[in-house]
Design goal:
Distance between the termini: 76 Å
Largest sheet: 3 strands, antiparallel
Number of strands: 3
Radius of gyration: 20 Å
Order of helices and strands: HHEHEEHHH
CATH topology: Sufe protein. Chain: A
Helix content: 40-55%
Strand order of the largest sheet: 1-2-3
Number of domains: 1
Shape: globular
CATH class: Alpha Beta
Oligomer: single chain
């Protein structure tokens, strides 16, 4: 291919096929959450031997919650591996942050045996408390 043909190639076309698929998957999809949802975060300290401690000083769980029902619509957390984040998300999404906190905690204790089990439980309780504070501020007695 001559020099003129090279000028018309884009950067993406010069990337080997096996890497171009990685670039596509790295583009974060834009998620539109319903107007009736709110965002809450819970935080907990981590043990020094937890891989999270090398990057972060705390463990956090971020939740998108239906404002009226307390149902968790989406969840993420800071973990060393995506699989861990995905597994935690699979436990939390669909659970109820208000009426189902004990059930969510039991699921975590029965299914998640990562080093962050205790920080996850603490962070979930912290997120619950923040959600309750928001709800109380809207409807003071």
């Amino acid at each position: 291919m001559g020099r003129a043909g090279e000028e018309n190639r884009t950067f993406a076309s010069t990337i080997p096929v096996e890497f171009s698929s990685l670039l596509e998957s790295a583009k974060a999809p834009i998620v539109d959450y319903e107007p009736g949802t709110i965002f809450v975060t819970g935080v907990a300290k981590v043990a020094k031997d937890d891989p999270i401690a090398s990057s972060y000083q705390v463990f956090f769980v971020s939740l998108v919650v239906d404002h009226d029902t307390g149902v968790i619509v989406d969840a993420t957390c800071n973990t060393a591996r995506d699989m861990t984040k995905d597994f935690i998300r699979s436990i939390l999404v669909g659970g109820n942050l208000v009426s189902g906190l004990e059930e969510l905690s039991a699921q975590i204790r029965q299914r998640f045996f990562g080093l962050a089990q205790k920080p996850l439980l603490v962070a979930l309780k912290d997120a619950h408390n923040r959600f309750v504070v928001v709800k109380r501020a809207e409807n003071p007695r």
